[in-house]
Fold this sequence. Notes:
The complex is a heterodimer.
Chain A (H helix, E strand, L loop, with lengths): L11 H42 L4 H20 L1 H24 L13 H35 L1 H7 L8 H21 L12 H13 L3 H10 L7
Chain B lengths: L10 H47 L6 H20 L2 H28 L12 H35 L1 H6 L8 H23 L9 H12 L5 H10 L15
Amino acid sequence: MDEGNLSAEFDLAATMQQIDLQIDEMTKILRDEAGHLHMLFDRYHTNIARSRMHTKGPMLRKLDEAEVQLTDARQKAKRLIELHGMLVNIQKVNQMMVHGASDESAGWMLKFSAYIGAVSNICLGQLKYVMGEYRKTLTSIREQVMLLWMDRELSAKLRIILSINTSRLDQFLRLAHEVEITYADMSLLSSGGPETAGDLHERIMLRLVSNRLRSAEELNMIANLFPQWRYQ
Amino acid sequence: MNEAAHHKISAFKANQYASLFKSLNQKVDLLFEHLNNDFLITTNKVKKYTAMARTRLAEARLPEQLKLKITGAARSFDTIMVELQYHDIIRQKLEHIYTTEKWLADEFNDLFSNAVDARPRMILIMRELIELAINQLNQLKEEYLFAANKIQRLLRALWADKDVSRELHLFLFNTSENLRNVIKSIDHIIAMHRQLLAEPWTGPVASTDHRARLLADVKKLYTMESERKVFNQTFQMVEEEEIVDEIFF
């Protein structure tokens, strides 16, 4: 067993395909979660409208306040679609790497395989960011719903369920963990990093990656990992 | 999240290393599984043969010579069961490796998510811990091969005796696939550690005194003499002599 050569058995295309399949599942989870939350808040809004018809006094004000909170929570749930987009962008970066590495003579001017480590690190950062944001979004929504639920009279009228189902999040995190491990292993395969970001070829690579990770948040993550790099 | 001057570890490295140590621990988990499979397969077979031996020995009309052979076989099975406990020792050693890698994963994770407040501790002796892990894994591999080969020799000797293998329906079961999985796993984990050691490290390192204190803390994990031996050899230390002060009344 050649214990020294980690890159000997590495197949970029197959590895990226595996990651892409896992990301596909993760994006589906985010879509399902967003859909589920949307339905939930629709139901609560319907219950508010129904309750308003035969409510007076202080309860009416509570219903108004609940509507504001639930609208805000529904707005937060849209975050999941943004995160879905970020995962799709990671897949675009993967495709770029596979395409570039498979045809390195096609006038790209740089050797993609030499940057697997650096690019994997970027994707790793993005992935962790998405994981954190998904968790944060659900927690925030749960807290808002809990405040409404604690008012027993209000929650009876709106039929508020306290628990926000975390099984999708758990499944997402399990998949994300596997993808994280794969990117981490890939990050060992080549050198490169902020110390060499002055290198022309690495700047070209960062440009190519940034073209696919275009949102302010995504570019911010790249800038965090490569402080000397700025997308222009 | 940008690098903070007080620890000088870039977000790039913190991000990468947090996940790398997590990846190493995931591979240690897989190694646990392979070891467990190996242990279960051999244990179950040996238990079956032991039960067969006991049943035969309980028969009244067993010829004396055969009785002696089967008694000998039963003793060999007992020896094998004792030898199999090496799995438990290897598991404990792996758990200690897992612990140190987890410390590093957690610290790098803290650094990546909260660079300003994070205070690296074990990271300051990261390279020492990687070197130690390589030596521990190499020792573990030797111990495993030694014990696995010993068990195989005992089984082969029993199987080679036609009377014993016929009476106990002893088939020489093939554990080479398990062995290959375990060795391949260990080799891969060692290779990753070597690669990590080969990476340039521009982060902070502990001063001599601080290093000594941190290593002393790490050494507390190692309750087995063989572990402490590897630790001492890695850092060229000697084992402290136990001073026994007995007061006789």
